[in-house]
Amino acid sequence: MLDVCWALFEIRLHADPERLRTTVWADLTGDYLGIMPHPELSWWAMRGQLIQEPGYMVNYALGPLMTAALRAAIRDARGELVHRGPGWYEWVSARVYRFGRERTAAEIMTAVTGAPLSADALAADIARAR
After folding, report:
1. Are 87 and 121 found together in one domain?
2. d(CA 12, CA 62)
3. Which DSSP string corresponds to the chain?
4. Structural domain harbouring 33
5. What is the crossing angle of helices 58-78 and 105-113, to 10°?
6. In this structure, are 75 and 125 located in the same domain?
7. Cα 110 from Cα 41, distance rounded (Å)
């Protein structure tokens, strides 16, 4: 969720650059991480990427989204991950690993999951964890 907060932080500030950064960060960490808001502290500023590479922080949110979607697709096809069983690696290798840079991540994800990347699988994981 911290990675998602970083992404939302950038998205919200790019959408409305006049918003106070410390307030946006305090709202996000309060809502999504359960941290008591401290808008007087600017600990969001520790991320140099926010200045040097605008838009980069969204990459941090893509990893958990992709991982959750892949886990859900594998679970649907092969059963619970704790029971990988024979053929698990071969199944994943044939559908995910074998392409290298031949296909884009988006193409592979859509082929494996049957849909474009979304937050649905991650939201389901979070709900299950609760």
Report:
1. yes
2. 17
3. -HHHHHHHHHHHHHH-TTS-HHHHHHHHHHHHH-PPP-TT--GGGG-THHHHSTTTTHHHHHHHHHHHHHHHHHHHHH--GGG--TTHHHHHHHHTGGGTTSS-HHHHHHHHHSS---SHHHHHHHHHH-
4. 2-56
5. 30
6. yes
7. 41
74 and 48 in a common domain: no
Dmax over CA atoms of the chain, in Å, equals: 55
The whole-number average pLDDT for the span 102-122 is 90
The neighbour count for residue 124, using CB atoms within 10 Å, is: 13
**Token pair of 5, please?**
């907060």
pLDDT band at 83 (very low <50, low <70, confident <90, very high): low
Q: Which two tokens stand for residue 15?
A: 């959408």
Residue 84 has pLDDT above 70, yes or no: no
Side chain identity at residue 61, one-letter code: A
Question: Does residue 50 sit in the same domain as residue 80?
Answer: no
